[in-house]
Structures are given as structure tokens and as C-alpha cells.
Amino acid sequence: MRVWIDQDLCTGDGLCVDHCPDVFVQLEDGIAYVAEAGQVLNDPGGSQSLAAVVPRHHHSVIQAAEVCPGECIFIEIDTPEVIAPGPDDDLHEVHAVSGDDSAAA
Ligand code: SF4
């Protein structure tokens, strides 16, 4: 899970910090930013500053997003990596069977 805040919509009430101070931080400008491993990601902020959320904080981050009055906390769920077939994989090769065995005679 990763999370980011749209600072343009943040009201600065600090509810997110109350829910999860390890992930949400309010700076001197009164606006909330996300943090990862103790480092505030305020440059540039917004969707360019995604913080990875450790599993023990997933629940509180979701709760923060639910109560956020600015509706400006955005959560992205990491999806498992999908391994696409390579060019040498004949996974979809179709073998035609004509039933005409005259060539074998
Ligand atoms: S809860 Fe939402 S509006 Fe309030 S400080 Fe946090 S991000 Fe900003």
C-alpha cells in the first residue's frame, strides 16, 4: 500500500496525524504531508510523493482517509507482479489438424 495527499485540498485540521503520526505529518505551513521511514515527503508533495505504508499502519491509514474532511488522502494498493509470456513462449500456439493424411502416403 502507498499513500499520498493532495495538499491543494488539505484543510489542515490534523485528523490524519491523530490517526497515524508515523505516516502523516503537519509542517509549519499547516498542511499535511506523508512520511516514509521518518522522512517527510514534501518535495514536491502531491501525487509525486507517494509513501510506502508498512502493514501495521494499513488500518489507521485507511481510517484517516475515511475521516479526512478534505477527501484528499489517496491510497494506492500494490498489485502482484504479472509475468507476461515472452516472445519464445508458445502459450497460444494453435496446431491445425486437417484430417487430410494424403501427404503422408
Ligand atoms: S485529515 Fe485530510 S484535510 Fe485534515 S490535515 Fe489530514 S490530509 Fe489535511
Which helices and strands, and how do they pair?
Layout: E1 2-5, H1 15-19, E2 24-26, E3 32-36, E4 39-40, E5 51-52, H2 58-67, E6 73-76
Antiparallel strand pairs: 1-5, 1-6, 2-3, 3-4
Iron/sulfur cluster is lined by residues 5, 10-16, 24, 32, 68-70, 72-73.
Q: How is this structure best described in words?
A:
This protein has 105 residues and is α+β, with helices and mostly antiparallel strands. It has a single domain, classed as Alpha-Beta Plaits (2-Layer Sandwich). The protein is built from 2 helices and 6 strands; from the N terminus they run βαββββαβ. The structure holds iron/sulfur cluster. Iron/sulfur cluster binds at residues 5, 10-16, 24, 32, 68-70, 72-73.
Characteristic terms for this protein:
Alpha-Beta Plaits, 2 helices, alpha+beta, three-stranded antiparallel sheet, 14% helix, 105 residues, binds iron/sulfur cluster, 6 strands
- CATH topology-level fold name: Alpha-Beta Plaits
Bound molecules: iron/sulfur cluster
In what range is the share of β-strand residues?
Answer: 15-25%
Q: What is the H/E order?
A: EHEEEEHE
What oligomerization state is this entry in? single chain
Give the fraction of residues assigned to helices: 10-25%
Number of helices: 2
CATH class: Alpha Beta
Number of strands: 6
* Radius of gyration based on Cα positions: 25 Å
Any guess at the CATH architecture?
Answer: 2-Layer Sandwich
Task: Note poorly predicted spans.
Answer: 92-100
Question: Brief description of this entry?
Answer:
This protein has 105 residues and is α+β, with helices and mostly antiparallel strands. It has helices at 15-19, 58-67; strands spanning 2-5, 24-26, 32-36, 39-40, 51-52, 73-76. It has a single domain, classed as Alpha-Beta Plaits.
